[in-house]
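Q: Is it fine to ask for two folds in a single conversation?
A: Yes, each is treated on its own. Send the first.
Q: Here.
A: Result:
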Amino acid sequence: MSQVEVWFVGVECRQRQEGEDEIYGTVNLVSADGSQKSSIAFPRGQQTWDFGPDNKRIGTLQELLYRGEPQELAIVASVIEHDSGNVDGYKAAAAGVVTTVATSAVAAVSAGAAALAAPLIALLSNELVDAATKFLGAADDIYGPKSLVLTPASMEGANQRRKTLHRPDDPKTLDWTDAIVQTGTDDGGDLGEYAIYLDVRLTPAAPQPQPRPRHAGSSSGAVSVVSRIPNSMELWWIGRDGSVEDGFWYEGSNWQRFQLAPMGSASSTGAVSAVSRIPNSMELWWIGADGAVEAAYWYEGGSWQRYQLAPAGSASPSGSVSVVSRIPNSMELWWIGADGAVEAAYWYEGGSWQRYQLAPAGSASPSGAISVVSRIPNSMELWWISPDGAVEAAYWYEGGSWQRYQLAPAGSASPTGAVSVVSRIPNSMELWWIGADGAVEAAYWYEGGSWQRYQLAPAGSASPTGAISVVSRIPNSMELWWISPDGAVEAAYWYEAGSWQRYQLAPAGSASPSGSVSVVSRIPNSMELWWTSPAGAVEAAYWYEGGSWQRYELAPPGSASSQ
């Protein structure tokens, strides 16, 4: 089974005692073998939460209680309605209680006792009550302590029981798998009820190598990925015979594969582009071997359906489609024509696809690609490489028409590369591209200023026929990956107030120099990557906060084209 994480995600006021309750408390965990313990005092950064009136019924947070192998866990929560007690003293005492109980558990297991959570519940509860008598005021009302035992079996079923909390009197929501409900009465007999919410999350172990498939990735192409909901990922790549291959993963299970489109459906030098404009749908596009723009879509409850967006000869077979969904009921696409024009299509719910030309023949390198971002819902920004290596750009703001400019002059970029972009906060954009000399070049824009440029990695750092992939998993960080000329997977990261740092994720020979890395951050504390190897394998790596990068092979060597 995968590793498991247990998160404390929120508190709900189901019934208040007074007009406004001042609430604080702790959630305490000890693993059955005593090896792990935690005590989370809430709220963070203040003594109490005010609960009761409208918009003050739900308190949300994200606090990690446990990460590790599945085992029995004893969890005890206490909620206190504050009047005059020593809040900080009680919170500190609770942490001491957890340490004491964990030490007792380790000693018991060492002496031969079974690692069971149930005996720890009573010990935790009693010790917390003792702590309360020392630090609570006469008018403070304690709810509980109440407890919960999580077993490996209950952890396995977490995804099936996950729910979303909604209330008509509070716009906040939270996702949860388990709750500890506590009631209490004050001196006047007024009843209050509060719920502590936990979310049990299965984090994937490295998937086992799959049986040798008939179709794996073209090493001259790339893997495309989307995470339409936090507990799933879906991948697509072009097979060695021009098929479109699909791999999908749902939390708690292994990777599964199928073929979306048969041999000959796609250009083996192209790539698949995907978007999930709403959580229950996915839409794909790719370039056919004859230069048609082909498409497929899936809506939950149905099967994949296919259509042709643009006929044969519409697109460069060595290019790809770029897509953005700036608002949930629309999609916008761009691709490079066989003549180097920048072609476009758009769809709005209730209508059909419409097409236009953004830039005329000769504007873009036929072997390049277009990058797009929608940093705010009423705008779109595009970049592409021209045949002479200039970095060209276009932007659109609602109510206006497309405008164009040149970001970097001729010779600035490899004509066989592409621009990568991220908007980590709404008023900024950051770009990277590979120079003709293999340098990693960059530019950034902050609202109110002009574009500024810098060089992230010197000449010879990147393969001129590759591309850069980027993700901003949290607003104050950015992470980049690219393929070096010797096939290493290189990386760089930036955290606010720091400078760029670099490292090597995979050594020389790991990746096809004509490929690229694809990345997704399905939840803020994780990143997942894929690339194709020179031997045509589909390689992967993943990172979860607090751990190191782990690697696995999704499709083995010899399965894919090495052209």
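Q: Second one now.
A: Result:
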Amino acid sequence: MSSERKDKVEVEEDRDEEKLLNNEKEVTKDTAQSGTSDKSKYDEKNNKGGIHQAILRIKNDNMFRHRIVHTAILCWSFIGLGWSAGMNGPVFPDLRQIIREDLATSSWMFTVGSFGYLSGSLVGGILYDKLNKVLLLAVSSLGSGICTLFTPYCSALPWMLFIKFAGGFFFGGLDTGGNADIIYVWGGDVDTYMQALHFAFSFGALLSPLATEPFLAGKTTVCDELNMTISNNPTDIPVTTKESRNGVMTSVSPDLKSFTSANSTQLLKCTDRLGETNVHYAFLLSAVFMFSATIGYIYLYIKIRTKKQKLNATHTETKTDDKIDKRQKLPVYLKIVFLTLLSLLIASYCVAEDSFAGFFMTFSLDYLKWDKSTGSFATALFWFSFCVGRFFGIFIVSCCKNSTLLTLYLFLLSFAYLGFVLTTLFRFHPLVWVFITILGFSMSVVFPAIFSWTSEHVIHVSGKISALFLTSSCLSGMVFSLLIGYLMEYVHSMWYAYILLIMSCSCFVLYFCIRVIRKCCVKKQTQTRETDIKAGIEMTLIQK
């Protein structure tokens, strides 16, 4: 009996190996059709594309409808997440005014926030795989809303740093959980929905600067009279420009303004100051998004508990069998190499994205000499192009491979940052606006495409893997926020653009290395595996 059973097992193994070697996709298709018969019949009839079929499926398929509702709530919370990210740059000068600190010291807000984000990503990634996923997302959303609400009321630097850390902690947990949850919900069909989730993030980031701008403090010039007068001699004053105030000509120097009369000139010491800020209303709007998302997660949690609905894990595993097979081809050491390089890639990309939005308002005020309104609209233009790119990414990803998307968009990102550096260096403002638009579009699909590509070719993106990626992005944010703030304060404002150009080029180089390693090593591993399978089949046939 044991020998017969052994022969039967060997025959089954040979059959599986032959199928895997000759037609791996056909095996996946057969496995998927044998998973759930009723579901397959419904899919063959109705899931052929188009809005009408999607509506029918939502009406008739309870599980699909549950996934759509789940995804909608995730997208709503990511609108709030993007709203908070989009307002970081515009409100930064007002928060500096509230805590009364200089640029270098205030940059600690970004660093501490990034450290909180890092901690939240680590804790959230670990807890996501162990606790109730929806309830964890609800707690993260609630905590984010509370921290956002109290941020503008922290007038002391220690309290501001504490609230930034706490807010970053909850935002990190929400971001990690959301990215892992969308993959858990949709499995092998995640590409489109991952792009939709990040489109929701960019949509919130687009609206945020526009909604925040009316509540920002205006810039005013305050002049103090000096107790001295000099003769009306233009050579006595380092004049740079001339402006008219109520019909009287004013000579303006970097630190002094002078009101010129017929015989003498009265010097005034003038400084630029911010007026009264109403930025707490902007933070209130952001908190409303997070609180409403919390209600959605609570509804989802109660619905799952009362009706005992769970995601169909069997269906998810069935639909991703082909991708699981691709991942299994990689040995452990190659997975470690890929995850390390991908973490560095995400870290470099997040510096290029987050630092641009976070410091651009300050850069535009100090170096480009724009006013706050112009800086806010430039930030909004960046997020608008970012949002449009992610919207089109929802459809592009269905007809284009993630690897191709990453190659094209990372090259475009490097080109756009090069143009941004040159146009700001020579202060050619019309082209600055053009390259801001290209920057937003080129960044749009990179982050979700990295997640999807990793899940397809390297390893399943669980809560821990999502935490690894977001942790690397937070570490880079902590370091480079301090570095950029220091260089802008004590060296030159253009270092803001130089560093972002270096990071964008690093992204392209890192991804090029990843593609080369995968093409060489994985191809070699696949050929070796196919040779072993053929040899095993031949030996089995000879023995028989």
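Q: Anything structural to flag on that second result?
A: Two points. The longest strand covers residues 219-231. Strands lie at 219-231, 241-245, 248-252, 256-260, 264-274.
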